[in-house]
Amino acid sequence: MRTEFERTHDTAGRSTARRLALLAALATVPALTLALPATAHAENAAGTAGTTGTAEATALTLPAPAKYVPVQDTLYAAGDTGYLHRRETTDGSAATYQWHGYDGTERTVDGFTGKVPGQQGYYGAGTDILPVPIGVSGVVELRYPATGTSTQLTVPEGQSTVGSFGTTVLTTSYNDVWQIDKLHILRVRDGVTTDTVVDPPEGLRFDQYPVVAGDGAVAVVRFTRGHTIGVLDLTTGTLTPVASGVAVDASWNIQAAVSPTHIAWYQQGMSTARVVRRDDPTGAQTSVAVPSSGADIPVVGLAGDWLLTSYRPAAATEQNPPLRAGGPLKATPVSGGSPVTLLAAAQPDLFQIPGGGAVTVGGADAGDWAVRRVETGADGAPTLRTLSEVPARPAVLRGIALGGGQLVTKEEDSAPRPAYQTRKVTLGAAPAAGPRSEVTTAPLGDSYGQPLAAGDGSVVHVRHDDATQRDLIVRAAADGTRAEIAPFDRAVPPTSGRGLRDAAGRYAVYGGGDERVVVDFEAPGGPAVVQRLSTPAASLWGSTLWTTDGTGGRIEARDLATGQVTPYTVGASCQIRDVQTVGRWVYWDCLGQDSVGGDPATPFGVYDLETGADVTLPARGRLGDGFVVNHDTDAGLLRLTDFHTGTAGAPRTLTALPSVPGWKNYDVDKFGGGIAWLETNGTAHVVPSGVPAQPLTVTAAQAPATYTRTTGTTWTPAWQLSKPATGAQLVIKRKTKTLRTLDARAAGAALTAAWDGTLADGTRVPAGTYTWELTAAPEDGTGAGITLTGSLTVTDGA
């Protein structure tokens, strides 16, 4: 079936500029409501019901889920009164540096750049004072952001800044061959910058980036030989060498942390960190196991007598790696013992607070993300205190489908990989949405993967296989199984992806131009192409394929199980190029192929299979049960036309909905009567049509007449319905005696059951012939229920 969405995007003359202009013009237009009075709204945990304008039912509004990856709130420094951070912006603009006080106040730190004159180094650590450079003058403003007061310090000519701790600035100077030969402790006394020179121990030389940790009193520095680190007293200038105990004599991958009581350091690749008492750095060292987190790189910190570890993500090893929320935050007792997990996910940021503890960012997921303070309780165990919540941002949704009351959304970043998410929606006086569940992964981008809901809980889409250069039709069923098939044995460019036309239960229609194929995903031996047609018009209803033989005004119904063809003639003498089917209604459209009078109006309409009458429509659209939905892309409006009486009424507006290039932003549930649309911000809406539905019927059935009973096997009949059913039961009888009553499982507008040839107590029934009876009621309460009967012969296998 060539949908209206595909026709719209294939039509020549609709320029990108006009689409963009329309999007901009409608960005401020509020969503419209249906014309009839609305009933009171209802709310539920999954979504909010709003007014739709139908007389007896309300709509369902479902906000976009949160992005899987939390908003990044990067830390830069932490002191005893607050911390410095920058929170990722929504529009991609540069975030400002903010000082967040532990009292909840937030102040912008103007002029802070994350570095000071010279070179980038280790700045603003363990302090409430931040270094703000004044241009390139070599003057640094040491600013106390909580009060706005500051002190200016001048970096002497020839020195480069490598660290800042409170009112102390560390710089380096170089020898004749540009090796760092000295550290300088700079302070301001009586308005004058003083310089305390620090020489390296004999036989050692400072690393190019010497400072790895510190607070207002001490700094930990690296030497070019990684087997030794140094603890620098910032008050006296005394430098104490410490044997690092690292495995590799390389300084660049050594990190450290300083707390009021301990100093810890860790070399990337080792399984343990070293911890010493701060008041005895050359004393006994304790080795503390560093928990691993896959290939991620541990980052160490301290809180009381606990070693903290967060994790810096390792480089991706695949082209499209899954999204990640972050590694865990763990705490390991310095005295020995197993690590405990403080946060399920956290950014690698770990900044020590001079008075004790650390600041980090993390949570259980994006909806629980926050800046948190790690401290110790009265019992010495680490605890967490939330300092500032980091609200999640909505995920990007780019595709929607609705079938049998199953709402499907193609979501780019609400899960580790792009995925199809589905949920059961029910409309009526109290609309509700069930929990979201992932059906399967989705292709990246908009060209591929626009979903179709097949009415039985399954999702059908197209993906491109780069290895074979083939388009593959994929079906992800409600039971978790997944099947795929290449409809054509020829290469296609990886930019097509729009050949999926229709899906119903086990079948799908695919093709382009005047070529169509029908795929049976449950064919014996696996998915197979069961029909190849030279026609642009093909659609499915249950196990019936609706198409045309090319004769003007001719359509035909082809039973895919028996091959029987039943012809019909509609009121047009043109070659039909689009067919859509819902029960008694067959929508046909010549799409500019009028073969008689060249009528610019180009015939289209609906044929009523019950009365044999044609229904004239005011506009082309997507067929529902007794109505069509038209997306007026020029006006940016979604409209519904009710024709269930045999005469089309005046179109009524459902909502303002701009056209979008590349993805499907609305759908009609031909297995239930709802209409769904998707806003560009990811908000989904589902509204009832307000049109009386046809009675519940069976459109396809798979109820084998024989069952060979073996261990682990069951008789599994299935029925595709015209709309969802409820209260379905399958009764097994021997003559008039009921042997077993089973609840049939509903998935979309389909029912399945399973019987293993036993009674309720597990006793096997004798081999022989039994009868079965299926009963079900329509979920929407419209019309009578169904009762189906049949016979089953049970035999015993090996």
From TrEMBL:
Gene3D superfamilies: 2.60.40.4070
Residue ranges constituting the FlgD/Vpr Ig-like domain according to the UniProt record: 716-777
Entry coiled-coil feature ranges: none
Signal peptide interval: 1-42
Record InterPro entries: FlgD/Vpr_Ig-like (IPR025965)
Keywords annotated in UniProt: Signal
Protein known as: FlgD immunoglobulin-like domain containing protein
Species assigned in the record: Streptomyces galilaeus
